Amino acid sequence: MRDHTDVDEVAKLDLLKAVMAVREKFKEVIDIQIVAFPQFGLADNPESVDLVWQAMEAGADLVGGVPHREKDMDKAARQIEIAFEIALANDADIDMHVDETDDPYWHTLELLAEKTIETGYQGRVTAGHCCSMAAWDEKLFQRILGKLVEAQVNICTNTPVNLIIQGRESGHPTRRGIARVKDLLEAGVNVTCGQDDLQNMFYPFGNMDMLSVANFVAHAAHMSSEQEIKEVFDMPRYKAAKVLHLDSYGLKEGSEANLVLFKANSAADALRKQPERLYVIRNGDVLVRSERSLTLSPTLPFA
Fold it and tell me: Is residue 106 domain-shared with residue 244, that is, in the same domain?
């Protein structure tokens, strides 16, 4: 830790305090986790290292990272080491943006899995994006897959934004640019889905609706059998709950009454129809109730 704080650091920590104030204001509506995310790396950036330490001390929840933004794989390994040092000191989980690139050179996911195993941090590390996986040869993928299973690293595919961003510079045929969801699931890796970016320069669409995101995953990852559709439907539910350590999640006696209710006959029906959310319930209280009316013309033969 350095013994001084410059003006930029003060501004960044003030921003953190503002975010924490938002978290406090809306705590009865939504649980917000704050990730101390070093946008420009850590290996050669002592200022960012200091800021992550300070952010954790100030109340951030998780340690972030973006190892593929470093100069090379050696520097990426150093970033991961620093992130684990901070996380272990704060007993905090780790959530990193990993290999968000089309370049197969980057396989920092392997370094992350190895460090997780080395530190005994199984189940407490999440890797988001993992796009270069789509460009790895099969030998490299299988090697890393075994380490992911042993490390119990969670994978979060951000399918909508990565379908927009990845493959733009590669020409044709164009890579899909997302993690190999089906293969990861078949191996026993916990895979969830997320919405990275919303109405910004990276992704002008999106509404943070995880049912919509799951629909994207089903299409892009070729998940169309009955069992595969169920797996996708569980990504923003039980698989996400595992990432967040929500032990009381689910429909069973003693679970917290946090529910989103809608009309659907099956997982496929829910993903297909994207139905109106009739009720949003938190801790037993109805926060949102939706009603939609539909009037058919009496001239229609099925009215």
Answer: yes
Question: What distance lies between CA 292 and its chain's CA centroid?
Answer: 31
Sign of CA dihedral 287, 252, 274, 153: positive
pLDDT value for 3? 42
Structural domain total, the chain: 2
Residues 172 and 266 in one domain: no
Contact criterion met (CB below 8 Å) for 181 and 145: no
Q: How far apart are CA 38 and CA 48, in angstroms?
A: 6
Residues 123 and 99 in one domain: yes
For the cut 90, the answer to whether the pLDDT of residue 14 exceeds it is: no
What is the per-residue pLDDT for 26? Answer: 94
- Both 159 and 107 in one domain: the answer is yes
Cα(41)–Cα(189) distance, integer angstroms: 27
Mean pLDDT throughout 62-90? 98
Looking at the fold, whether 157 and 281 belong to one and the same domain comes out as: no
Q: How far is CA 255 from CA 26, 123, 176, in A?
A: 22, 22, 38
Determine phi and psi for 291, rounding to 5 degrees: -135, 135
